[in-house]
TrEMBL record:
Organism of derivation: Natronomonas salsuginis
Protein name: YjbQ family protein
Family: Belongs to the UPF0047 family.
Superkingdom, natural source: Archaea
Signal peptide start-end: none
InterPro entries attached to this UniProt entry: UPF0047_YjbQ-like, YjbQ-like_sf
């Protein structure tokens, strides 16, 4: 699944897209993995003010220059920021749907946009 971002630091709710890509599993575990080193995933509330707060928080996590990797491609801060969140999330599957809490959403956190990001969605059935 591909997700386009619009800003250098951007938070995109991908919950519905993940659920649409979910393999046919009644009960199990869904893993969502972002196939990039300057983007991350998190489970949190997708409320617009909180999304703005997450973007501001991510922007403040690291100085944007002065890193050794910047000599290569100028985005060390993006690698550092995304490393704090991680590249994957796991969500239980119940009755063929993501079993998220009332206010939980799967959020893609872009740290080096705008870009098009690839997400992998896999499902592991429960052993009964």
């Amino acid at each position: 699944m591909n997700v386009s971002t619009e800003h250098r630091i951007d938070v995109v709710d991908v919950t519905e897209r993940v659920e649409a890509e979910l393999p046919a599993v009644d009960h199990g575990l869904c893993t969502v993995f972002v196939e990039h080193t300057t983007a991350a995933l998190s489970i949190n509330e997708a409320e617009p003010h909180l999304v703005d707060d997450i973007e501001a928080f991510v922007a403040e996590l690291s100085a944007s220059d002065g890193w050794k990797h910047d000599a290569l491609d100028g985005n060390a801060d993006s690698h550092l920021r995304s490393s704090l969140f991680g590249r994957s999330v796991c969500v239980p599957i119940r009755d063929g749907k993501l079993a998220l809490g009332t206010w939980q959403s799967v959020l893609l956190i872009e740290c080096d946009g705008p870009r098009t990001r690839s997400l992998s969605v896999t499902a592991t059935p429960s052993v009964e």
